[in-house]
Write a structure and sequence with these properties.
The protein has 15 helices and 16 strands. The N and C termini lie far apart (53 Å). 41% of the residues lie in helices and 21% in strands. Strand 3, helix 2 and strand 4 form a beta-alpha-beta unit. The chain has an 8-stranded parallel β-barrel, surrounded by 6 helices. Helix 7 (174-187) packs parallel to helix 8 and helix 12 crosses helix 13 (336-346). By secondary structure, the chain is an alpha/beta fold.
Amino acid sequence: MIEIAVSDITLREEGKGYSLSFKEKIEIAKILDKVNVDVIETAPITNGKTDVLYLHSIAPLIKNSILSCPVGLDEKSVEETFDAIKEAAKPRLHIMIPVSTVQMEYLVGKKPKVMLEIAEKVVRKAKSLCSDVEVSLIDATRAEKEFLSQIMGKVIKCGAGTVTLCDSTGEMLPSEFKDFLSGIYEAVPEMKAVRVSVECSDSLNMAAACALSCIDSGVTQIKTSVISNEYPKLNAVAKVFREKGDALGVATKINMTVLDNSVKKIKLMTRGANSYSPFDGGTTSESDENFVLSATDDIASVKLAVHKLGYELSDEDNAKVYDEFLKISKSKKVGAKELDAIVASVAMQVVPTYKLKSYVINNGNIITPTAHIELERDGEILQGFCIGDGPVDAAFLAIEQITGHHFELDDFQIQSVTEGRGAMGSSIVKLRHNGKPYSGKGISTDIIGASINAYINALNKIYFEEEVR
């Protein structure tokens, strides 16, 4: 019985069709670890401190699986990545090297001879830091056979313990991919000393069949994803092992008992490969901070409370918040939500990057909610049209479509400001970017309009301070 390792790339592919909050990525890592996948692959470090913090957070939580993180093709990236995952029980450095002529030119602008030198240097560096090193050869099925054999022999000699052959375009049928692997084994005898892995694209809807066809050729690791439609699905591959494992003479560590429920949980968080909602992760109904301020509290106490909520305000904004706090605290005590609303109302007021031109919302009990939003930026009118689970959800998705960015929705509040049939509604939206909160407030007789204005208000603060492009 041959044990086949499953390396899941759901977190590595995050951002390509689905977006996850910091908390959701940690939760998915924990779920995959409970499912007992052999390897959990993360995305590379591209966002500096935020990505490093995320890796530091999940490293000690992963008990069963290998934690694998891609590195750049330079020694500094190798060092930075290893430092981020070294506290994991089983860390792995993952080096992804383009090997076809078109990919080498397109991705790194290098010739084969230079790629060989880079591969040797980076693999040796990775091996000096981490005992477990994987090398993925991108677009291997379209590489020149002589060069592919050469670079495989080189990375194995330098310390790669796992070598992944990628059918990046997904153009091969199962029988063709099996023959391709058999030919590589003959050309590179060193492959018998390492774990051979495959990563198959699903452009022909045959990725799982292609991956499984290679088992007879010596492959002992298969790449899967819970969500992405571009790769074999984890539950589809696991089902083959469950139903046909004995006949194929293969086994897996996958915990079949919790698999189906775990996949459902992850799908709920990602909402499928092509759709997600700002509300997917939920919003905080209560602040994590518990405090109550009264009119007797001084500015230092209020500044401390603001800091506990995650805001970093200037002295000028802190003064504005304190002045507004004094007005409100005369009639009632101020808790975390009230203080959030004060910050949203008076602090961090900026020149708007986006201005709301118009919005049209269609909603009812027999139609799917839709939103058509028009925003103005630098004199240009930009349009977004989206469906959602509700009118506010659809509106926020339409704004995300226009901006091209998804920010974590940390909190969303709606309340009445005045009474009567023409009552004014107030909405507070708190977005989070790079771990920092940004609150916006909107007021209107139309609560949907108030919510849209609040979202845009928070969005403009992010664009002003973070210089998002």
